[in-house]
Amino acid sequence: MKIIEHYYGPDLTWIEHYTKQIGGKIDGNFITLPEDSQSGIRYFLDCGDGILAYYINVEYHRNYQLIQKNLNQDFVGFYYNLTEGNATVSTENFMYNVGRWQYNLAVIDGSLESKYNVVKGSKTFALCIFIKKSMIKAYAKKNNIIIQNIDTLVDSKENTIVRFDRMSSESYHLLNDLRKLEVGGPIFDLNLRGTVHLLISNYLKKIAARRLIVHTVNESDLANIIQIQMYLVDHLEDHFPSITSMAKMVNMSESKFKTLFKKITGDTANAFFMDNKLLLAKELLSKKQLSISQVSDQLNFTNNSYFASKFKKQFGISPKLYIKQL
User: Fold this and answer.
1) Residues of the chain with pLDDT under 50
2) How many whole angstroms separate alpha carbon 244 and alpha carbon 85?
3) Which CATH number describes the domain made up of 218-326?
């Protein structure tokens, strides 16, 4: 396994060090690597306003571990990741699988260290956006996005910006449209800048519509919440456990547990559990090996009617109609 220690940032200062660490060369805005290690495209672009974009569309020909330890912590990274294969994000305290969790969007404070582990043969299409914390307030104001307590939100002493999320369908289509373009040159740069600004704007609008949790988070707190998320995903066929029992599992008070869970995932533990239970139900139905009643029973829904109502509310279609459309 090739182990690389590097850092990111909202300007161009990290490019040379990063390129040297991964054994590549800088060619204009491209970072090229030997074909025996990776094939594909790595492209960076200064988008102005304290924002830098890093576009990746590569296939790995060896196992990699990229350890991110940022020198400049006054930024936030938006990681839109559509990896096909085996890839995980971890720290010393936790690890989660990008594909399994379907967390294709991670918003991570520059103060948090992380490791990205990817297995030979995996294909990664990702857009990383780095924005200065000090520019988030100006960006929201410029785009008429009203975020309550935004001064506290971007204050490192008061708050840690961290969220593991699923990108919206609109964001997914924006990335796919960008992926169709030939990389490099003024037309691509114009589209890349436009995509970056739309993605940031969409995300800020999304969090502006929710009640924000302002709380400092360290790696231990993050590890504890990820541990519970893993536990919930591993027990989707059971009933939802109590908040009391989950808080005890990670040695937290109930109030702290609920606060951190909502901050890191954007949902309550109950909503997270049901969301993933329904995704599993959809997957089981798509295989056409179990009936609606069997799926409902296997996942411990109260009855078929309750299962059908939750499924339709989540996906906008009844289980019966979903099966017919497969």
Assistant:
1) none
2) 36
3) 1.10.10.60
